[in-house]
């Protein structure tokens, strides 16, 4: 009985309270990746930004725990940061990733979304608070007999049930109006979701633009990317994931090798051509989405990489992007030093990796009122 109570309590911890839990789970590979155009820039204007001032405007690092919801977290972090910048919201602002995950992913049988899709959901529905619809840090797919899982998904079978267990609600609710959702004779009765929908609509009315179409979010050039960061605004980046470059725990399982020191320091290198990482990571293809908060053209990071011929080579990379992650604060990036300040849960990724394999997105001023 005690174990059941403990498990239930764990499942309903909020994303904020789970910031010390290092899940390091990933998205499915991104299918809409488009790399930016790299042009020569004025070194004086575009060598670095005031990254610490951007970080000061961000909300605390959250933890996605054991769900592949990184793009959901980066989009929510982006929105929270922009609300702080544009509307002077307090740093305690905490919006519902659970709501965004349901409307962005509901109906599928596996996790994974994208910045563009997430922004469209936010623009259409707004976002309620974390308190109104708290984040649940696990999928129910492997624990379908939990009481709440049975209550919400027990009337389903096959793929519809899997889809329900994945996002903790019957995806049919997405097509239902508030009156239908509040029908107590139906297995989809869900007053909590209705409360979240109402709050989301109020949020949208108060903060978001009234344009009929979601403003374009994709960043296509390096100059535009740097202008946004220089203006003090964050960006999301979705990127193909290489376990060795990230020093992820799965790198050891795949025989790639990893640096625990770089993991704790939040350093992300590059999957070199000819490396084991470049080949083996594709066996467990994944994507990851993060919130870019700054850059420094002159920052140098060093890595040691296992090559396919069995040798280990050292590489040095000049230029990084700083980012806010969604893996908590006690594992990845626990000791990262950014401009002589420790910022647990943040990281730095080489520009080489970001430029070659990342796609960047913004919430422009036209997204908001």
From TrEMBL:
Keyword Transcription recorded: no
Gene3D superfamilies: Cysteine proteinases
Superkingdom of the source species: Bacteria
Residue span(s) of domain Peptidase C1A papain C-terminal: 57-139
Keywords carried by this UniProt record: Signal
Any one Gene Ontology BP term: proteolysis
Pfam families: Peptidase_C1 (PF00112)
GO MF, any single term: cysteine-type peptidase activity
Protein name: Peptidase C1A papain C-terminal domain-containing protein
Species whose genome carries this gene: Halobacteriovorax marinus
